[in-house]
C-alpha cells in the first residue's frame, strides 16, 4: 500500500464511522439547530479523547513485532467492520443529548464501540501508518480528524435546512454500511492470505 492509497483508505474508513447515524450525529443535529458551531465543538471534544488514544496506540505499535500480530488485528478489525455494517443496516443506534465540547468528550469516552473501533480498526491503520514514519502517523491523525470536523461542522451549519431526517439517516446508514462492508471484507481477505503464508 503506497502513501496516497493509505490516506485514501484512512479517509474512507473514517467516513464510514463519521457518516453513521448515532450519538455524535444526534448531538450535532440537536445542537446545530441553535448553535452553528456545535459540530466543531463536539468534534473538538471527540478529538480530545482521540488524540491520546492515537498516541498511545502508536507507541504500543512500536513495541510489538508487527508481522502476525498485524494480520490478526486486521482480521479482527475486518470482522468488526462487517458487524458494524450489519448494525447500521438494522438501524441499531442510540441518542445521547448533552452540550458542547463536553458532549463530544462524553459521547466518545462512554461509547464502547468507539474504544473497540480504536483497538481493532484504528490500531490496524496506525500500524500501517508506521510504514511511512512520523509523516504517516501525522497524516493519519490529520485525515481522520478532518473527516470529523468537516462532516459534523457541515451538519451543524445546515441542520436547520435539513428536512425528512429519517430518510436522510437511512441513506447515510446504507452508505456507511457499504463502506464498512467493503473494507471489512478487504481486511479479512488480505489478513487470511497473509496468515496462510505464516502457517503453511
From TrEMBL:
<dbReference type="InterPro" id="IPR001123">
    <property type="entry name" value="LeuE-type"/>
</dbReference>
<feature type="transmembrane region" description="Helical">
    <location>
        <begin position="6"/>
        <end position="27"/>
    </location>
</feature>
<keyword id="KW-0812">Transmembrane</keyword>
<feature type="transmembrane region" description="Helical">
    <location>
        <begin position="171"/>
        <end position="189"/>
    </location>
</feature>
<feature type="transmembrane region" description="Helical">
    <location>
        <begin position="39"/>
        <end position="60"/>
    </location>
</feature>
<keyword id="KW-1133">Transmembrane helix</keyword>
<keyword id="KW-0472">Membrane</keyword>
<protein>
    <submittedName>
        <fullName>LysE family transporter</fullName>
    </submittedName>
</protein>
<dbReference type="Pfam" id="PF01810">
    <property type="entry name" value="LysE"/>
</dbReference>
<feature type="transmembrane region" description="Helical">
    <location>
        <begin position="98"/>
        <end position="129"/>
    </location>
</feature>
<feature type="transmembrane region" description="Helical">
    <location>
        <begin position="66"/>
        <end position="86"/>
    </location>
</feature>
<keyword id="KW-1003">Cell membrane</keyword>
<feature type="transmembrane region" description="Helical">
    <location>
        <begin position="135"/>
        <end position="159"/>
    </location>
</feature>
Amino acid at each position: 500500500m503506497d502513501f496516497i492509497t493509505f490516506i485514501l483508505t484512512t479517509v474512507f474508513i473514517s467516513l464510514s464511522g463519521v457518516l453513521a447515524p448515532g450519538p455524535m450525529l444526534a448531538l450535532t443535529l440537536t445542537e446545530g439547530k441553535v448553535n452553528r458551531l456545535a459540530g466543531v465543538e463536539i468534534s473538538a471534544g471527540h478529538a480530545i479523547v482521540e488524540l491520546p488514544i492515537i498516541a498511545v496506540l502508536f507507541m504500543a505499535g512500536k513495541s510489538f513485532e508487527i508481522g502476525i500480530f498485524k494480520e490478526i488485528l486486521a482480521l479482527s478489525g475486518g470482522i468488526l467492520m462487517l458487524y458494524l455494517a450489519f448494525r447500521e443496516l438494522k438501524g441499531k443506534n442510540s441518542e445521547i443529548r448533552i452540550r458542547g465540547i463536553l458532549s463530544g468528550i462524553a459521547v466518545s469516552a462512554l461509547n464502547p464501540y468507539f474504544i473497540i473501533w480504536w483497538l481493532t480498526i484504528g490500531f490496524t491503520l496506525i500500524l500501517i501508518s508506521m510504514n511511512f514514519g512520523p509523516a504517516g502517523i501525522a497524516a493519519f491523525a490529520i485525515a481522520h480528524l478532518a473527516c470529523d470536523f468537516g462532516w459534523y461542522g457541515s451538519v451543524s451549519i445546515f441542520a436547520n435546512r435539513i428536512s425528512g431526517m429519517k430518510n436522510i439517516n437511512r441513506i447515510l446508514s446504507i452508505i456507511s454500511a457499504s463502506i464498512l462492508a467493503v473494507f471489512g471484507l478487504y481486511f479479512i481477505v488480505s489478513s487470511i492470505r497473509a496468515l496462510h503464508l505464516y502457517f503453511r
